[in-house]
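Q: Protein A?
A:
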Amino acid sequence: MTAGRRGATRSQAARAAILAATSSLIERLGYDRVTMEGIASEAGVGKQTIYRWWPSKSAVVAECLIEGALLPETYAPHDTGDIVADLTEWLQRVFDFIAAPGHETMLRSLIAAAVDNPEIGEHLTGRLGASPDVLAERLRTAAAARQLRPGTSVERLTDMFMGIVLSRVLLRTPADPDDARAFVELVLTGAAPHRPTRPASAPPRSSTARQPRR
């Protein structure tokens, strides 16, 4: 029994070392330059030990995201009852994370990895708080509190905010201190001008108006 526990402990230690090594390599080198051989060397294990748990590099990276070994903080929106303030604070935290040294390159490499493994994209957006499960739930709460226009599609709003986050990573847009609030207000209120209320029209004049008597 003691030997069994010792073996299980060694296996868990090796698994943790592999996840830590993968996260470290991704942060330093980016997804494309990380190999299974490199992970094995960094973790101090044999390559077959990695394949015992994961079929591919992308599967290891996906589990790093699930376990929080990569992007340990989850950037979920808070719920203070003010949807504009909550989304602004959330988006600013995400922008600050992206702007930190090394993060932009790492995130771009993970987005590229999501092409091969959609699970990476799902868990990446989840860690940033822009996944349908996280962001959409906050928007549904706002809709229930009538802070959104009736009939507003929560799914479409979620897609918009996910697009803002991903475009900030991919396009390297210069940061502005007011970006977060400006994006939130633009998405929630739109850009179309308010249409003035049309005054009640006067009743149409009769085409058979009485002619003056001669």
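Q: Protein B?
A:
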Amino acid sequence: MADLISVVIPTYNGEKYIKDCIESIQSQDFPHEIIVIDDISTDRTVEIARSMGCRVIVNTEHKGQMAGKNTGIREAKGNYWLTIDQDDMLVNNALQMLYDEMQKDLSYQIVMAQLKNFCSPDTPQQAKFVNPKPFTNILTGSTLFKKEVFNTIGFFREDTITGDVIDLRERLEKNGLTIHMVNFITCNRRIHETNYGITNQADEYKDYAKILRDKIKNRKIGV
């Protein structure tokens, strides 16, 4: 079977930017499928995604972004998996670049590239939050997984709102897996008034503390 990348977009009231996100994926040359996991949006998110030919799964109750990623893993038909936020955009040729890097070594299971922030034109006042330099350690739009990895490390923690990278690294270490880092950019990360990273900063610190407490507890009992 030819290689296929499943691109998963967890969504909630994303009508303002979802079209840009989907178009950035559809313009990729590499074979892919787009799966939108919607957390019961009250706007036109689902309508837009369906009109653009995406496969759309709508939750029956609010479950959060991490649950959306897990649903996307279960539903993915591809042998590679990538998630992206509803307001971000892949750069040209991003999927091909990640795939090509993955093929350089059979031991590679996860390839993490870089992201770059940009200030959304409709919210220029958010420019102060824009990091002008490329950066890593955010999964969305930057990280290609072999889908089989999740059979080893399990799904994302649904009791967290953010902090997925620190939890991922902990479980990878436990299973003897690593992330292969590369220095090219695959995702333009939109900064705007309701940007997920900005509006959930307080929860991010709580999640880090929760994951750290669990790590310490597990070491004490020898897990």
